[in-house]
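Office hours follow-up: a student asked to see two folded examples consecutively, so here they are.
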Amino acid sequence: MQFSLDRFYRINRRAVIWLALFGLLYVLRDFFALIFVTFLIVSFTLPAINYLVRETRIPRKWIIVSMYFLILVGLIGLATYIVPRVVQEALTVSGEIFSTESSIEKALVDVGKKHPSIREVTAYLILHRHDFISKDTLAFQSKAQDYLRKAFFIAVATVSTILLSLLFAFLIVLDLTRLREQVKSLGQSRLHDFYDQSAGPVVRFAGVLAESFRAQAVIALCNTVLTTIGFLILGIPKVALLAIIVFLFSFVPVLGVFISTAPAVLVAINDQGYTGASKVVLFIVVIHAIEAYILNPLIYGRHLKLNPVLVLIILYVGHHFFGLWGMLLGVPVAYYFIHYVFRVPTQADDKLVERQLEREKPLPGAAGGTVDSI
């Protein structure tokens, strides 16, 4: 039989379309940060703009221009007042690496004195501290200039990406109605197969991703505010640097709280010794409990709830294959595939089925009949 490209496409249409879409994403991989940040800005600002349009009589264009102008002013203020302080605190912390090592040694000695039952453990850690501290600090010191140079270029690239994303997001939101009509018109073009196959899943995935990051941003902001207040009360220095670390790593589920705790504990040990570090650990445990039992159920509700063990596996695999992007996007992508592609029922679906079965359960004494619950 003679090979027919037309027939091959008709038989394997869905696979060809999705392979083409993933190929397009691969080709655009160098622009992924710009696309992603633009998407986040639109997903955060668009609900606020729609709300203000509904609740006020201000024209939509004026609301959009005012909002993005305020965002730009906020970014300039952040770069002017916050960033220099964070940089100065980061340089101070990097210069205190060796004093931090001696502070850790002193803290271990204090722990051994207060708790004789674990004195042998602390003595072993003090004796072998050079095996796991000094080598790393010496390596860091030898490469400090390279790290600072790389950090400078990363900062420049980040600023330019954010500014470009803000411009693109402004233009997209400003002309959103016409853009929607132009995208819908693809359904009547020769690309209608691609539109029919991909439009629905892409929109659903974008909704899941936007919902996830909006919820996580609120949680991260609450965590940062509570943690900053706690650090000020405890008298921990370098609060601006630690607050930025807490905010950024709050977007990494489960694992982020442990990563962001380490710098705070090291700063506390260096400044206040064993007692200060213990207070920081206790305080962060309380904040984490508030996040786990109040903020997550209140903000996330029943959405994007995955088992913590599964989340850790997703983060590890995502980081192994995709680095930072894998840690940021791993959980929303996994949630989408689990519940939208593979159709695994959520906890809410299970409870809905249980309630339905409870309604259909026969009442005691009924002759095999069922009654509806009132």
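And the second, which I mentioned at the end of office hours:
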Amino acid sequence: MEVQLKLLEAIHWKNPVGGLTHEFYRYPARFSPQFARAVIESFTSPGDIVFDPFMGGGTTLVEARALGRHAVGTDISSLAAFIAKVKTTPLTRTDAGVVRRWARSLGNQLNLNHSSNPCADISTRYHQRNICSKSTWPIRKTIHLILEKIDTLPKMRQRDFVRCVLLRAAQWALDCREDVPAAHEMRARFYEFLEQMLIGAQELIMAAREKGKTDQIGKISTLCLCRSAIGVDTEPRLKHCKRPALILTSPPYPGVHVLYHRWQVLGRKETPAPFWIANSEDGCGASFYTMGDRKQQRLKSYYKQIHEAFYSVSRICRRDTLVVQMLAFAEPSWQLPEYLRVMSLAGFSEITIENMMNSADGRIWRRVPNRKWYADHKGLTGGSTEVVLFHKLSPKVL
């Protein structure tokens, strides 16, 4: 009973996301670390593998690592894979010292009057789309000046960490803003976030060590793969891994518009600038990351891909693997039954956890306050009510 109460409390947790490396980047539609932690603690043991086939910003992987579990995550977005990798890559105290000295050495080099190499590369110019206006160019120039200095850091994990700090500062300066702050304000935030994130990286190492896991650089206990969950059962890099005890994930929400890969600046202008900062490629529209346009007829493409993804996932499960998902639906009346039908076709049966349901349908539902995604909708939008689903392999699959 204590486990159920703890899990219910975590499901309904409404405090801001924080702790460890969770604040490295505000990835859209992330679930709370408290939820991930409670599920992992309730249904796995240290040394087990936790798998997130739609890892997004890596919340599941961070909590698994902190709790002494191995973790694997996949995502088709190179931005998501970059963020999840940085959030789960240990930084030593030596790394932290190198990064701090590098940051102090920037000094006056971030002055906007300093010249910088023009971005002639077509891909780079594409990624800077909609941030070259009179109000945004000081932020773009600041980003460019910092990026020019990153390669002077000696190790890739240090360079990736600083890119993530810059991502966070630039997101603060540009995303969902009508008024863009001054360049000096962003520089101040950059240094502030750098210190906060170095502390968070150390907290993750200490948490993992407290669980008895060695966190030496080079020891791989977390694997972030930039690939689709479809066909993951044939992934060579998982060939020698144990089968996961837990699948903990939050797939794209059916029919709910979430802008996973872009920022919105000055109203509704979209920019792929996050990919520029992360040194990742983006050439895809929103439907690529959400399994089809939300206006597609009966979401056929979405459900087809969900079926294929979870069929692949079923082929790497243990007999007792538990699948836990947090989802929202634009129109739950027909989209939820269809989702459950597709899960059944993929080889899974829905289960209920005793004494945990809080609605007439026997499931756990939660309200997400003030969720508005990237639209002018406020209040109870399609993504404002989420449900937690539990599945195991169907007897016929076993």
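Two things to take away from it. Residues 213-218, 373-380 have pLDDT under 50 and may be disordered. The chain has two domains: 2-82+214-271+283-393, 93-207.
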